[in-house]
Amino acid sequence: MRLVVGAALVDSLDAPTRLLAARRSAPPALAGRWELPGGKVEAGETPQQGLHRELREELGVAVELGEEVRHPDGAWPLTPELEMRVWWAVLTAGTPAPLQDHDELRWLVRGRWLSVDWLPGDVPLVTAMQAL
Ligand SMILES: Nc1nc2c([nH]c(=O)n2[C@H]2C[C@H](O)[C@@H](COP(=O)(O)OP(=O)(O)OP(=O)(O)O)O2)c(=O)[nH]1
């Protein structure tokens, strides 16, 4: 099982109102669907280190991580081969730009966090986040 890490990038850790969604540009099977920015953890990295690296590469930003958005079993199942862990995050430097892997970014207002076409594995996750 390969671990994917994602950021629930919001405007405030205490009272989040806006959530950043990113639209994938590749591969063809996933292009056009929305996800949380992030990616696969590499050998020798902690999940948090991998998440900081992915956010720097994909969006050109630095963040502060908050609490983990926990799944009761430890990680959110994505596919038979992939599972994801997610942390709340706020920007500390930079403005997110679709530098890599994405062709559009969108801040979603709370109450409308499910208004984009998320990758299927993200729907239960974003539903749980919005209910917190
Ligand atoms: N980043 C991210 N990936 C997700 C989410 N939901 C979801 O099903 N995935 C899937 C899509 C991909 O199959 C996988 C993440 O792989 P990726 O291709 O983004 O990883 P990566 O940037 O490390 O790229 P690579 O090493 O595969 O080239 O997880 C999500 O919310 N965020």
Would you mind describing this structure in some detail?
The protein is α+β, with helices and mostly antiparallel strands and 132 residues long. It has one domain: Nucleoside Triphosphate Pyrophosphohydrolase (Alpha-Beta Complex). Helices cover 17% and strands 37% of the residues. The chain has two helices and eight strands; from the N terminus they run ββββαββββα. The chain has helices at 47-59, 122-131, and strands at 2-9, 18-24, 34-35, 38-40, 62-68, 76-77, 82-93, 102-109. Strands 1, 4, 5, 6 and 7 form a five-stranded mixed sheet that branches. It has a three-stranded antiparallel sheet with strand order 3-2-8, with no helix packed on it. The termini are far apart. The mean pLDDT is 97. 8-OXO-2'-deoxyguanosine-5'-triphosphate is lined by residues 4, 6, 30, 35-36, 38-40, 78, 82, 84, 101, 119, 121-122.
Topology:
Elements: E1 2-9, E2 18-24, E3 34-35, E4 38-40, H1 47-59, E5 62-68, E6 76-77, E7 82-93, E8 102-109, H2 122-131
Parallel strand pairs: 1-7
Antiparallel strand pairs: 1-4, 2-3, 2-8, 5-7, 6-7
Bound molecules: 8-OXO-2'-deoxyguanosine-5'-triphosphate (8DG).
The site of 8-OXO-2'-deoxyguanosine-5'-triphosphate has 15 residues, from β1, β4 and β7.
Which topology does CATH recognise? Nucleoside Triphosphate Pyrophosphohydrolase
* Average pLDDT, all residues: 97
Largest sheet: 5 strands, mixed
- The appropriate CATH architecture is Alpha-Beta Complex
CATH class: Alpha Beta
Q: What are the low-pLDDT stretches, counting only 5+ consecutive residues below 50?
A: none
Number of domains: 1
The gross shape turns out to be globular
Alpha-beta classification: alpha+beta
Percent helix, as a range, is 10-25%
What is the gyration radius calculated from CA atoms? 13 Å
Could you give the order of the helices and strands? EEEEHEEEEH
End-to-end CA span? 28 Å
CATH homologous superfamily name? Nucleoside Triphosphate Pyrophosphohydrolase
Which ligands accompany this protein? Answer: 8-OXO-2'-deoxyguanosine-5'-triphosphate
Strand percentage, roughly?
35-45%
What count of helical segments does DSSP give?
2
Number of strands: 8
